[in-house]
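Board notes, transcribed. Complex of a protein with IPE.
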Amino acid sequence: MIPAALDLSSVPRHVACVMDGNGRWAQAQGLPRTEGHAAGEDALFDAIEGAKEIGVQWLTVFAFSTENWKRPPEEVKFLMNFNESLLVRRSHELNEMGIRILFSGRKNWRVPKRVLRSMEEATDLTKNNTEMTLTIAFNYGGRAEIIDAVKRMLEDDVPVERIDERKLARYLYEPSMPDVDLLIRTSGEHRLSNFLLWQVAYSELLFTETLWPDFRRADLYEAILECALPR
Ligand code: IPE
Ligand code: IPE
Ligand code: MG
């Protein structure tokens, strides 16, 4: 249910989520950490439906960071397979919802070819959709994104006097992505962990104790309401 207090005429255009706390959720129930990642899928889809329902235009979620390669190899392997299988299993559903899927992150470094192929297929399948853009930050790091932008500017011989904020933003992974209006991080951690460093310069930041697998659209609406409060 959409809360009556939620003003649908001023819903944030771009909401970003650091989907954190999967491991702790699983541990709390005596399950292996990977079960927490699997349980995060329901949270993700509820957040997607909920965001679409109230007219959010851009939803960006942090699925795998450039730092996450430091996790135990079995967990990394699980996350690669899990994310790929999620795309294969559910891209069509997202397509039917009118959602455009984009990926943000380093594509030419470490990501298995098979996963890249599924990412391309999902992007291609949904490229004409206009209901909402879901950007999956995968093998993403905010510093890596800025470094990659600078490298590409140098490759293009962009003259120094032409470099300004607008120019650099055009070299980010997804140049059409607007700045983030609201950033939500679950699981009680109060940090950015290298997420969207450029795009969150003026975002509202909302931290909740809820662990990601327990997150639902009601939590999204609550976060939006909280940030809309006059302060
Ligand atoms: C977030 O949950 C998911 C990923 C980083 C892929 P975590 O795996 O970080 O869960 P916690 O923080 O250990 O509870
Ligand atoms: C951030 O969460 C990355 C994702 C949610 C994919 P982490 O759990 O990896 O962040 P840190 O390591 O605790 O900062
Ligand atoms: Mg974590």
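Residues 26 and 36 are 5 Å apart (CA to CA). The longest strand covers residues 132-140.
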